[in-house]
């Protein structure tokens, strides 16, 4: 088809400090960049604070070798894919990538490489 284009690329939101996700992070990537040598926590807020639509996916990338990235959740539940384990947080190792998908109004499922 003449003039057709592919899907838009995911935006990358680079964060070098503790960070709470915002609605603009929906269906995009949040990056812990190489330049930040400190371990950080990125938090998925409760549905009552930021009502991401069910089906929202957020990808996390930990680009740095020295700082572990913690992916935390406030009052909602986050399950590790392939397991019934519910947790308040998960860690993402150096050069790890993980995606969290909102599966109900208060539940997220997370999977990836380097996620513990």
Walk me through the structure:
The protein is an all-beta fold and 116 residues long. 0% of the residues lie in helices and 48% in strands. The protein has no helices and ten strands. Strands 1, 2, 3, 4, 5, 6, 7, 8, 9 and 10 form a ten-stranded mixed beta sheet that branches. It is globular. The mean pLDDT is 91.
Can you give me a brief rundown of this structure?
It is built from no helices and 10 strands.
Any key phrases for this structure?
mainly beta; ten-stranded mixed sheet; 116 residues
SSE blueprint and pairings:
Layout: E1 12-14, E2 19-20, E3 29-32, E4 40-44, E5 57-62, E6 69-73, E7 77-80, E8 86-87, E9 89-104, E10 107-115
Parallel strand pairs: 1-3, 2-4, 3-5, 4-6, 7-10
Antiparallel strand pairs: 5-9, 6-9, 7-8, 9-10
Shape: globular
Instruction: Round the mean pLDDT to the nearest integer and report it.
Output: 91
Q: How large is the share of residues in beta strands? A: over 45%
Structural class: mainly beta
Distinct helical segment count = 0
What is the string of helix and strand elements? EEEEEEEEEE
